[in-house]
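user: can you give me the structure for this one chain? tokens are fine.
assistant: on it. calling the predictor now.
[tool input]
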Amino acid sequence: MTLVMLVAALLALLAAVGAGLLARMDGATLPAALLRAGVAFGGSLTLITALLALGISALM
């Protein structure tokens, strides 16, 4: 279970880095790019965690 949560956090981090880089390349300031990266991290981690909880509850 710990490994699954670690993978979820790494996927969310990858999404955040991608969103931050894309925002920066689009001309956003550094604080705005960091804000978009934070939103992407929070959103993707929430979605992955909800899907994991749904999958675990379906198996039990």
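assistant: here you go. The chain has one domain: 2-59. The two ends are 15 Å apart (CA to CA).
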